[in-house]
């Protein structure tokens, strides 16, 4: 079991999915400063946040908890909160994709 927040793993998983810390923070309802504290292992994550972290990285809640340095048993979540967190994470991921597509289109328009 990890004893600390594995920020390298989280950054790599987010990058593989075309996401970043800002998207993760938004999906989890955290400020950038709060997410930085989580990544520095100076703030614990709650059950709903853990569910979002799992959804955004595409892993199980147990794997997300392990990589966050907490046991899954330490962060129980009720089914409704977990479902809401998963839906919010999906919306945030879609918003990030749309923003990326809009930025790419804007760049193409400027170069034309």
| Domain module count | 1
How much is the average pLDDT? 85
Q: What order do the SSEs take from the amino end to the carboxyl end, as H and E?
A: HHHHHH
Secondary structure: helix percent: 55-70%
End-to-end distance, in Å?
A: 52 Å
Number of strands: 0
Number of helices: 6
- Looking at the chains present, what oligomeric state does this protein adopt? single chain
Which class do the helix and strand fractions yield?
mainly alpha
The major β-sheet equals:
none
Topology:
Layout: H1 7-16, H2 21-28, H3 32-39, H4 47-57, H5 61-67, H6 79-111
Structural features:
about 110 residues; mainly alpha
Describe the structure.
This protein is an all-alpha fold. It has one domain (7-111). It is built from six helices and no strands. Helix 2 (21-28) packs antiparallel against helix 6. The longest helix is centred in the C-terminal third of the chain and has 33 residues, at 79-111. This is DNA-binding protein. It comes from Caulobacter flavus. Keywords: DNA-binding. GO terms for molecular function: DNA binding.
Briefly, what is this?
It comes from Caulobacter flavus. This protein is mostly helical. The chain is built from six helices and no strands.
